[in-house]
From TrEMBL:
This is ATP-dependent DNA helicase. SMART domains: HELICc2. The keyword Metal-binding does not apply. Belongs to the helicase family. DinG subfamily. Residues 34-313 form the Helicase ATP-binding domain.
Length: 653
């Protein structure tokens, strides 16, 4: 291990401290693309050399850069080389943030880009995964699940397979990370939900914290010398919780880092909104506030706490009755009323009274200081969230209903101010990498939505011959029966070997149900997202060439070269859902269809198209279905985003 770290910290070239480091690193990187990789059998790509020169400026001036590069340009190799060298120079790792959890595994797979660099450049690269908290088992939830009715046996054997130090705290052996979602590929997403960490777990005061896989994994990835790979969501969670964690005496989720690469950077705004979201639940408030009752407190405080619990219960009941279902969404819309506003104010006032009481109480030193800090943090967060909730113009809120009660979700509409202050004002190179970021050749839309004042940018087209490699067909159909018929014919044409992309989980589940009743579909092996851990499904799809992978979240980033992926089928046009987030965006837009729905759909569709051709030897089919294609304007826009030279065939059933 020590040896690996030592090697990882060595520059891959002879460094002269009297000269600029970036200049010397750039010369070495140019040599890699001109000489070393071509000698190892890689194509010499002008696009990579051009990109390398662009990144040199971003790294030497510590600037933000939009690096828009089409599929097959080899952009990952370029940014990895800069990120690694700069990490070694500054002695701080680089962060590579991918669009989601399934993509972070792809960078470190044996045939992935990091392994390629290590092999061909004879480098030892210390890259570690910083997975999100929900990717780890929560020992408390596992305990409950073992005692439950459903799948108790499966959870029992997971419990039995945990390392000894989990069961026996006195064991004198080294702790190591465990309990990662990937270690349980056979569990469905539903089963995993019963044991995986969720936002309502209170790790701060958990007695199992030091033996928990999540905590141990954090200790592991924090020590990476070169690269930490995480998701956008996780990076944003780090940004958002940074100050609070420090106040609570905890380490931030990620260590100090030297640069950040946002892969699929066009998706960052959504991740930021998600991380800045408040989730309020009555049971969580009750369990946190009642901690104060464990100490010797004055009666007036005890009475106010009881009052607050009662008011919280009342408010959540009112929220539930004031909400209404949204067609096609599991989220419920909150209907604001004077009564609701009055109850929110009343709750805020009781919380303020507790805060005041706590000022007195802390002077008496009767409460545990640590518990007090946690309660104060929670009250502060609640007051912030309630104040936001009272001003609906700046936020999007909804209710999620679960068995154990409702959750009020409050999400800010704009995140640019916070991003500007906490991310883009840092003196650090930040790379946005994606095939689709500019709108009509300009990056202004991205800069404005993320609060970036100044950035470098460039665009490089894909080197592939799409006219020869891609054959596309579109069908203006919407009925399930017709779509199934067409899907079957197209799957027979490609002999399986297809990725079917669905805009929603509901559409995927309906497809799964329907094909089970049609014998002809039995000729194919289908793999469905949600039935097992995602990277396990991707591996199975890649190794069983004729199989068909059905997914909702793989419109972006999936990289499967070769015949296993010879056909990409879009089951429907990926218009945004009818949920509170998009309803709010539509409400604020003068022409919602043109400025919200169409751009989102086209961007997603373009990303989906990008899954097919991953190298110059690849070729295959594209099938796009959707009743909206009967509208000439939609069809015209869809045709325009197809790569140059690709003329779609119009199919009918
Ligand atoms: S530390 Fe958090 S995730 Fe781990 S067992 Fe405790 S509550 Fe669960």
């Amino acid at each position: 291990m020590l040896e690996a770290l030592k090697l990882a910290n060595t520059y891959p070239f002879d460094f002269d401290p009297k000269q600029s480091f970036i200049q010397q690193a750039s010369d070495w990187i140019a040599d890699v693309f001109y000489e070393r990789l071509p000698e190892a059998g890689f194509e010499l790509r002008d696009e990579q050399i051009y990109m390398a020169f662009q990144l040199e400026r971003a790294y030497s001036e510590k600037q933000t850069i939009f690096a828009e590069a089409g599929v097959g340009t080899g952009k990952t190799l370029v940014y990895l080389l800069y990120a690694i060298n700069y990490a070694r120079y500054t002695r701080k790792p680089a962060i590579i943030a991918c669009a989601d959890e399934s993509l972070i595994e792809q960078l470190v797979k044996p045939e992935g880009d990091i392994a390629k660099l290590a092999r061909h450049l004879d480098l030892t690269i210390d890259a570690r995964l910083g997975k999100s908290m929900d990717q780890y088992i929560c020992l408390n939830k596992l305990e409950d699940a073992r005692g439950g009715i459903e799948d108790a046996e499966a959870y029992g054997s997971i419990y039995a397979s945990l390392p000894d130090f989990v069961h026996n705290p006195a064991t004198m052996q080294a702790f190591y990370p465990y309990g990662n979602r990937k270690d349980y590929p056979e569990l469905t997403d539903e089963q995993w939900k019963a044991i995986g960490w969720d936002v309502f777990q209170d790790c701060l005061v958990c007695s199992r914290r030091h033996r928990c896989g999540q905590t141990l994994s954090r200790e592991h990835y924090r020590k990476a010398a070169d690269i930490i790979i995480c998701s956008h969501d996780f990076y944003m969670e780090h940004v958002w919780t940074y100050e609070a964690r420090k106040r609570e005496g905890q380490l931030p989720l990620l260590p100090e880092h030297s640069s950040v690469v946002f892969d699929e950077g066009h998706l960052l705004e959504t991740a930021a909104q998600k991380a800045l979201t408040y989730k309020l639940k009555h049971s969580v408030f009750e369990s946190i506030i009642t901690r104060l009752l464990n100490g010797e407190i004055r009666e007036s405080l005890a009475v106010t706490i009881d009052e607050a619990i009662e008011q919280s219960e009342h408010l959540f009941r009112l929220l539930e009755s004031s909400s209404r279902a949204i067609a096609g969404s599991e989220r419920r819309e909150v209907v604001m009323s004077d009564q609701l506003l009055k109850e929110v104010n009343r709750f805020g006032a009781v919380l303020a009274a507790i805060e005041e009481e706590l000022v007195f109480e802390s002077g008496l030193f009767t409460l545990d200081a640590y518990q007090l800090t946690i309660v104060e943090e929670h009250l502060e967060m609640l007051q912030l969230a309630l104040n936001l909730f009272k001003r609906p113009s700046g936020l999007i809120s909804w209710i999620e209903q679960e068995q154990e009660g409702i959750t009020l979700v409050i999400m800010p509409k704009l995140v640019k101010e916070i991003l500007k202050e906490r991310v883009f004002s840092k003196n650090m190179p930040i790379v946005f990498s994606s095939a689709t970021m500019s709108v009509s050749g300009s990056f202004d839309y991205m800069s404005a939505s993320l609060g970036i004042r100044q950035a470098l940018s460039f665009s490089v087209a894909s080197p592939y011959d799409y006219e020869r490699q891609m054959s596309a067909a579109v069908a203006a159909i919407g009925g399930q029966e017709k779509k199934l018929k067409l899907a079957l014919a197209r799957l027979q044409q490609s002999q399986g070997r297809a990725l079917i992309l669905f805009p929603s989980k509901e559409e995927l589940l309906r497809f799964k149900l329907d094909i089970a009743a049609i014998p002809d579909f039995a000729a194919f092996r289908f793999l469905f997202e949600g039935t097992a851990e995602i990277s396990h499904l991707i591996d199975a799809f890649q190794s069983d060439e004729a199989s068909v992978l059905c997914a909702v979240t793989l419109w972006e980033g999936l990289d499967i070269p070769g015949p296993s992926l010879s056909h990409v089928m879009m089951w429907s046009l990926p218009f945004p859902p009818q949920d509170p987030v998009f309803t709010a965006k539509r409400r604020d837009a003068a022409a919602p269809f043109e400025t919200v729905d169409m751009p989102y759909m086209l961007l997603r569709l373009k990303q989906g198209l990008g899954r097919l051709i991953r190298r110059s030897e690849d070729s295959g089919l594209i099938t796009i279905m959707g009743n909206e294609l009967a509208d000439e304007r939609v069809l015209d826009q869809v045709n325009r985003i197809l790569p140059e030279g690709v003329r779609p065939e119009l199919l009918s059933v």
